[in-house]
Every structure is written in C-alpha cells, then in structure tokens.
Amino acid sequence: MADRKIGVLEKIGYGLGDGASNLIWMIFIYYQVNFYTDVYGLAASAAGTMLLVTRSWDIFVDVIIGMIADRTNTRWGKFRPFLLWMALPFGIVATLAFTTPPFDDHGKLISAYVTLTLLMLAYSAINVPYGALMGVISPDPQERTELSAYRFSFAQGAGFLVAMLAMPLVAALGQGNEQKGYMLTVALFSVLAIAMFIGTFATTRERVVPVKEQKTSTKQDLLDLMKNGHWMLLCTLGILQVFFVALRGSSMIYYFKYYMNDVVFAGPFGWSIHLGGAGGTGPFIVMGTLTSLAATFLIQYVTPYTGRKNAFIGCMVLGAISLVASFWVKPDQLLLLYGFHFLYSIFTGPTAALLWAMFADSADWSEWRTGRRATGLIFSASGMSNKLGWALGGALALALLSIYGYQANMAQTAHAQEGIRLLMAIVPAIGALVCGLGMLFYSLEKQMPKIEADLAARRSKKEA
C-alpha cells in the first residue's frame, strides 16, 4: 500500500474522464428530448417509448461489462485499459446518435433505436470501468471523496461548456440547418472527449488490488451483490437522483421556449444575449452549472464536519424546497427564476459526488464481509442507477408532454404550459425529496474507519 496519498495531477487526470463523458451526457440531458421532437422529427410518444426501451435493457449490459472488467488483467490494470480501447468508438457512435438520416418517419425511428442502442453500449464499455477506477486508485474514504469532488467538478465544467457552446455551435455550424448543426457540434465535442479519456488513462494508477488467492465465479459475485444492502439502497437513491435531474434538464428548453418571456441583454459593439425565450436555456444552464461546480468542489471541505450522509440529506431537502418555490414563477419574473435556480444548484450540485463516493465504500464493505472484492461489478451495477434514472426521467418528460397536449414548434395551450411547469418544478422536487429522505436509512458511514483498518491489515498480511 505504498503511494497512499494521491497527487493533484492524478486527481485532475481522473476528473478528465467524467468531463469527457459529460460532454456527451449533458447534451443528452439538456437537448436530446427536444432534438428528437423538434429537430429529428419524432412524435413525443414514439420518442419517449424509444428512450425507455433503449436505456432500460442496457442496464444489464453494465453488469456484464463490470464482471468482464473485474476479470481483466493487463500491465495497465483492470479498468484503465477500457479508457484507451473504447474512447474512439464512443466518439463515433455519439456523433451517429445526433445524425438525422434522410429516411421517412418509420426509417428515422428505426435509425434512432439503432444509434442510441450503440451509444448506450459504448457508454457502458467506457464509463463502467471509469467509475470503478475510483475504487482502486485509493482505499481511503476521504481521498475518495476528494477524487469524487474532482470528478464531478470536471463533469460540471463539461456541462458548462455544453450549456455555453452547444446551441451557438449548432447555429454557427448548421447555418440555418439544425440537423447539420447538431451533428457537427456533437462530432466536435466527441473529439475533445476522446482526448480527455486518453488523458485519464495516462495520468492514473490502480493501487487497490484483490489478494492473489481470490478466485470467484460470476454466480458468487452476483450473490454477494444481492446481499449488499448498502449498495441496494444507494442504487435506489441513485435512480431517484438521476431521475429528477434528467426530468428537469429535459424540460428546460421547453420551459424557456414556450413559457418564459424573452429578455435581451444588450452589450457593447452590438453584442446581445437572450436570457429568456427560446434563447434563454443556455445562459440559465451556464449559471446553474457554474454554481454546481463550485458547490461540488467545496463539498470535500464540508463533509469532514457533517459527514457525507447528513450533507446529502440536507442538500436534497433544501433543493426540493427551492424547486417547489419556483413553480409559481410568472413568465416575466426571470430574475426570481434565476434566484431559485441558483439555490437549487448550490444544494443539489454536490449530491452526485457524495453518492458515488459512498458506492466505493459499499465495495469495501462487501470485501470486508466476504473476503472477495468485485469493484467493477459494484460500480457497473451502480451505473444501472444512472441508466434507469435517465431512462425514466426522459421517458416521463415526453409522456407528460404528450398527455398535456404538447405540439412541437407551435404556440402551446395553457394546459400544455402547465405540464411543462410541472416537469420543471414539482415532479423533480418529489424525486429530490424522496431521495434525500431515503438516505436516512444508510448506516455504513460510521463503520468505515474500522472497515478500512481491517482491510489494510488483511492486505498487509497477504503481501508479507
């Protein structure tokens, strides 16, 4: 267990990986639903079914990838090689997923199913090993919190780039053709993501390894997972956490385009920016992302005093309150909307970092209890929460839009606007509140000092 302390360069390198994923992930969170209905040309109901089907079945792929990674042994380690092997395929299929083919409606729907399925496969193959990597870079819970803070700070930073640049790039590269603009914009982000994944591969090390005598079957690994109550609770909370983020993220562009009044800020030399209306989504996301980024980075200095569990609960409850309050914002109350979004971003921004640091602890608990370590399986199965929460959030957003009578690229009825407002505030608030209160049942945090000491002693004995 030499080289216990992790340097800043390695933390930055690890963070680059989630920044790479989020360059594509956040385009999906913020713009994919609207892309399929208003640009690609799918009906809301058809797009919603597609999102649910393609994302839900893929959760089982995560488990398979995790078990493959646990059984991978190379000179680079178990998990780092996947970052090198899968970076290019991930970038290619991401671009294909935002390419509109010259087919009829039926052909475009089939193409959307195929390309989104391929993207989910590539995402699993690179992101599952990346998530598991944190569990083997360091065994120390506080260092994992710091790694997680860097990880999600870079993720938020990538979200900032997407919010700031995506729509301007679509307009500039497409030159009036949104279909072309989306394809070229995602291709550009994909090139950057490939380089960042390779950067993570080059700057990280795997330090925590299973004892040499460990040999387990797939059946035994799955049985261990099902008996890990701490993981099962965290996975459920992860579904809820991603669900409300995806739901609100998907609704933002509809909210600004069809509900909020346009407000134009005029700058020097003829420069101007739209803060409301159809062009207001980007600045709104940028402000929230910067706020979340700062809160995520600073949470590592809060948890030594509050603990991760209490910090998570407090953040979720306060975030839910700010969401509920924002429901009553009027179309001309842009400043008030920004104020509630600022509070929401401060409170909910660090929650993903806190949750994923706890997933690493659940892997340690399983090894401590069983004598067997399956970091890749733990993190891949944990990744199911992302996939399922993302699927449910996107599908429910489209389903509610359809129920409330949404019509693409048309003035919306008062009833449709109410549905959009519910998607933006009340429904995600319910998800955040239930997620926060669910953390009350988490009991592993106080056991971690003993677990860490026991595991360190076992490894030292085996290495002696």
TrEMBL record:
GO-annotated biological processes: carbohydrate transport; sodium ion transport
Entry GO CC: plasma membrane
GO molecular function, one term: symporter activity
Membrane-spanning ranges: 12-33, 39-61, 82-100, 112-137, 149-170, 182-202, 231-256, 276-299, 311-329, 335-359, 388-407, 419-442
Pfam families: MFS_2 (PF13347)
Domain of life of the organism encoding this protein: Bacteria
Keywords per UniProt: Membrane, Transmembrane, Transmembrane helix
Keyword Transmembrane: yes
PANTHER family xrefs: MAJOR FACILITATOR SUPERFAMILY (MFS) PROFILE DOMAIN-CONTAINING PROTEIN (PTHR11328:SF24), MAJOR FACILITATOR SUPERFAMILY DOMAIN-CONTAINING PROTEIN (PTHR11328)
Family designation: Belongs to the sodium:galactoside symporter (TC 2.A.2) family.
Protein name: GPH family glycoside/pentoside/hexuronide:cation symporter
